[in-house]
Amino acid sequence: MSLSVKTKKDLKYTYYLDTFTASSLKLTTCYLHKEGSELQPFPVEKLPVSKCFHTYGASVVDMLKGQTGYVVLPVYLDKFGNISDYQLAVTGSCLPSETDTAASIRENHEEIGCNITSEYISNSRTVPGVKPGVSVFAKVIKPTNFAPAIPIPTPQGKDDRNRKILSWLIINTPSDILNRKRISSTDKAGQVVVILSVSDTIKLIQHFF
User: Fold this and answer.
1) Which of 89, 93, 16 lies closest to 57, judged by CA?
2) CA-to-CA distance for 76 and 65, rounded, in angstroms?
3) Are 113 and 192 a contacting pair, CB within 8 Å?
4) What is the pLDDT of residue 52?
5) Pairing of strands 70-77, 192-197
6) Which residues have CB under 8 Å from 13's CB, separation 6+?
7) Which of 137, 142, 194, 203 could lock onto 100 through a cystine, CB 3.0 to 4.6 A?
8) Which H or E element spans position 166?
């Protein structure tokens, strides 16, 4: 497997690091993983960061402090299979009649490909969204056993944009995710993921947001 970043920069929807900033942040090497492939070491400063990670994410970044290991983050590919950007958390919206916990589990099944349960959620917090009337349910998820995702019951209907979820899935070592397998969905994110150290994730959130 050899993944590359699209050459044309999209400044409207994406953040980029310059060499000086990357050096001053003292970022470490991250890893890319495509389902069914091996890990690919990659310079994190060369990866474009999605602006879709909103400011409310920065308000809960302290939930990551004190954590060790790596965060698994979803990548979006362009039509040529190049990396467009990646998000600094797994995000989404609750479906009708779906609890925020169930929504977080579903999104991680769809985007990361890990079979998780509510027992793996180690920290939760609810914060206001950017728009009035919107609630954001933030969670830290730490699987004790990383197994491929399995099909789960999913409510039908449109996303509830007033109930958003944001979660960080933390693993001990990058190789923990080698057997990941996403459940079938229409979600475009997660065919490739970034495995980024917790400390680097915090640095990038604080820098950009």
Assistant:
1) 89
2) 26
3) no
4) 85
5) antiparallel
6) 50, 51, 52, 85
7) 137
8) strand 160-171
Please say whether the beta carbons of 81 and 158 come within 8 A. Answer: no
Helix or strand holding residue 208 (H, E): helix 198-208
The position carrying tokens 């690919």 is 40
Contacts of 186 (CB under 8 A, 6+ apart): none
Contact (Cβ atoms closer than 8 angstroms) between residue 121 and residue 104: yes
One-letter amino acid for residue 207 of the chain = H
* Residue 63, both tokens: 């939930």
Q: Which two tokens stand for residue 41?
A: 């070491």
Q: What is the mean pLDDT of each run of 10 residues along the chain (209 residues)?
A: 79 88 92 94 93 82 95 93 94 94 95 94 93 94 92 88 96 95 81 96 94
Integer CA distances (angstroms), 33 to 63, 83, 123, in order: 25, 12, 26
pLDDT of residue 185: 67
151: nearest Cα among 104, 118, 103, 185:
185
Secondary structure of residue 133 in the 3-state scheme: coil
Which segments within 44-145 are labelled E, that is strand?
49-50, 70-77, 83-86, 90-94, 121-128, 135-141
